[in-house]
């Protein structure tokens, strides 16, 4: 049995509950303040990191650049030849527009997340570069020029490069450094 008289007296004297309740409330308030402080510091660090990321160069020319996505209906463009023909004609028409300096196509824009990864291997290299995951993208036209991506060595693709020839690749400076 609980003595209601004792409970009423205790709560009427202090107005805030028993000592046990007061202590529990103080612990909860202190915990909430500590958690709020941790969240505030975390938010400040996140904003600072975001501001630093905004200042990092992407290695591409994004001013005066327009990107868009072209999805062809599979029922109308059933063969790879028809899709390739559409892309060639589309690029010719866009290139003919006033003010267009260069046009290119890519299977996925840079810095927009992962795409297709290939395992790249060098059999005679050091153990840390024998296997390297690299992303690949299919490009067409003057893609590198359109995005202002400089070519450091070698050449880009041209109209003579076809799917029937040996595969040609352009690798990033980081991949070249790690493999070669």
Give me the secondary-structure topology:
Layout: H1 4-14, H2 19-54, H3 80-95, E1 104-106, E2 116-121, E3 131-136, E4 139-141, H4 143-147, H5 173-179
Antiparallel strand pairs: 1-4, 2-3
Estimated radius of gyration: 31 Å
**Major sheet details:** 2 strands, antiparallel
Strand residue content: 5-15%
SS class: mainly alpha
| Overall pLDDT | 81
Separation, N- and C-terminal Cα atoms = 84 Å
Shape: elongated
> What spatial order of strands do you see in the largest sheet?
1-4
Description:
It is a single chain. By secondary structure, this protein is mostly helical. 42% of the residues lie in helices and 10% in strands. It has helices at residues 4-14, 19-54, 80-95, 143-147, 173-179, and strands spanning 104-106, 116-121, 131-136, 139-141. The chain has a two-stranded antiparallel sheet. It has a two-stranded antiparallel sheet with strand order 2-3. The longest helix is centred in the first third of the chain and has 36 residues, at 19-54. It is elongated, with a radius of gyration of 31 Å. The mean pLDDT is 81.
Keywords:
42% helix; elongated; mainly alpha; 5 helices; 180 residues
Please outline what is shown here:
This protein has five helices and four strands; from the N terminus they run H-H-H-E-E-E-E-H-H. It has 180 residues and is mainly alpha-helical.
